[in-house]
Amino acid sequence: MHPLRKNRPLRRIVLASAVTASGLVMLLALKPHTAPAILVAPAPAASSSSGANSGTGSGGSTATGTKTVTGETAQTRWGPVQVKITLTNGRITDVSAVQSPSDNPRDQEINSYALPELRREVLAAQSAKIDTVSGATYTSDGYRQSLQSALDSAGL
Q: Which of 30, 40, 68, 85 has the fewest C-beta atoms lying within 10 Å of its C-beta?
């Protein structure tokens, strides 16, 4: 006789309960993705390239020449994010991510569309007041935080 026959409903109930409990245990055993616990030395607050205003000072938006500044590393839930900006005559001419979460294929997939979009936003806004990229909230927040520290270091 088959264990799931209708004349034995107690067996069906016990079997269904066992399957449900097993599924629940497996579901609760899953752990969220966490970044590895690595101590990262803080990056230098600012680095300058050759240009008319390569010294330190409060040049602000009236500064001339080209200056490259690296922002502080922002620790996010999925990993560190760090941004480097290039300023020419007080305007942001280039932005690149020095560090971004890349521990797994999903991080790489998200950053493949999020980082170019964030770069476009920064070049258009010329500030850290940029929109969050949908699906990349933590990376966007870390990007914005590192970008603001770079702008602060540059005196903008």
A: 30
Q: Structure tokens of 77?
A: 């839930």
pLDDT of residue 84: 92
| Distances, alpha carbon 126 to alpha carbons 8, 62, 100, 144, in Å | 72, 14, 21, 12
Which one-letter amino acid corresponds to residue 1?
M
Q: What is the pLDDT of residues 101-120, one digit of tens each?
A: 888 888 888 888 888 998 88
Give the model confidence (pLDDT) of 44-97 as tens digits.
Answer: 444 444 343 333 333 344 456 888 888 888 888 888 899 999 888 888 889 988
Task: Tokens for 151, please give them.
Answer: 């702008």
Q: State which CATH number among 3.40.30.10, 3.10.150.10, 3.40.50.2000, 3.90.1010.20 fits the domain covering 60-154.
A: 3.90.1010.20
CA distance 7 to 48: 82
Q: Where does the chain hold its CATH 3.90.1010.20 domain(s)?
A: 60-154
Count CA atoms within 13 Å of residue 27 on its CB side.
6
pTM: 0.58
Unique residue bearing structure tokens 């964030």? 118
